[in-house]
Amino acid sequence: MKSTPTLRSALTARPRLRVLMGESTAIGPGKAALLESIVRHGSISAAARANGMSYRRAWNLVDAMNKSFVAPLVDTSAGGAHGGGARLTDLGREVLVAYQHMETKAARAVAREFKAFERFLAVPEASHAGD
């Protein structure tokens, strides 16, 4: 059964890149999105909210990234009268940009194969309110 092009084009299927260190993901799409949110919001808690995750989950991801690289990717400052915050270190910015470039290149490299692969993917049904 063939799906309509409009419905298929509305889907967000795409290949994604993960950099593994043994069994752990040093950086992948979720961690990159968290880093991007830290840049935008200046705090781990705001970045967590923007990514729909708990502060604890975001902190654990930041901690794992900081331990996966030669130096921390995220620098934090404790709260106080003006509140705490978080920012990417120079290495954090370099890693994020390098990851984004690798992901773009990887997607381009497999674009033809991925287009053919899409025919194997199911088209999700429209969600029903109240189900």
- Proportion of beta-strand residues: 5-15%
Report the biggest beta sheet as strand number plus sense, adding barrel if it closes: 2 strands, antiparallel
Helix content: 40-55%
Number of domains: 1
Question: Radius of gyration from the CA trace?
Answer: 18 Å
Q: What quaternary form is this?
A: single chain
**Which CATH C-level class is it?**
Mainly Alpha
In the sheet with the most strands, the strands line up as: 1-2
Structural overview:
- There is one protein chain.
- This protein is mainly alpha-helical.
- It has helices spanning 5-10, 29-41, 44-50, 55-68, 90-109, 111-117, and strands spanning 19-21, 24-27, 74-77, 85-88.
- It has one domain (24-120): Arc Repressor Mutant, subunit A (Orthogonal Bundle).
- The strands form two sheets. Strands 1-2 form a two-stranded antiparallel sheet. A two-stranded antiparallel sheet has the order 3-4.
- The chain is globular.
